Known about the structure:
Blueprint: H1 17-30, E1 49-50, E2 58-61, E3 72-75, E4 80-82, H2 98-122, E5 126-127, E6 135-147, E7 160-162, E8 166-176, E9 182-191, E10 199-201, H3 203-230
Parallel strand pairs: 3-5, 3-6, 4-6
Antiparallel strand pairs: 1-2, 2-9, 6-8, 7-10, 8-9
Amino acid sequence: MATGRASAPRHLIVTSFGTQHRLALLAAVILGLPGTASDARAAGPDELVPVNVKGIDSMRRRADVNWATYDAVLVAPVTVSFSKLWDPRDYGRFGLRPRDVERIRSKVATLAQATFVKVLAEGGYRIVDRADAGVLQVEPNIIDLYVNAPDLPDENRHQSYVLEAGEMTLALELRDAVTGTLLAEARDRQRGIDRGRFTVANSVTNRAEAERVLRGWATRLRDSLDAARQTR
């Protein structure tokens, strides 16, 4: 059975109470909502100011953004990159082929973009596919992806069991769609729950976990945009 390398991360995604609290805090702070952490110093008109929040890897935002001016959202195509610790040669009898790795990247990217579009649309945001005045560009890229049990080609296929699914990091950027001005950015890494026992892992379970955490990120962003627009 395949369990991945002992020295590498063994996680992909987690949706616990603690994670949801962190995601809410992440989205709230990058949008500068009341009651969040304050800037370390006064910001200039074009500066992104770091905001330190316990439990969040890193974030910066502009202090002068009127979020109420944005009434439409453009979710940009998502880019996905793997962790430097993830080696496609470690899986199956022959390792993953380049096209297998690209298939994983493409599936994660498509799922991430579709999830953010769906969640924002459910919240009443007008989804557009081109830049225009009043359009907020959302770039929810995924970095440092580590999958313990990737979907293997038929000739490599076998049952895989893992303690945890893997790991990935959201690298979120919010921009004015016309000018490209960076309004806010944040990174947040999610690691899987150690279930205390080996469980079957495959493309179905991997997708389910990925969709769950992506929806959590997108929902927190949507809720914080709602709150930010109402404060202006």
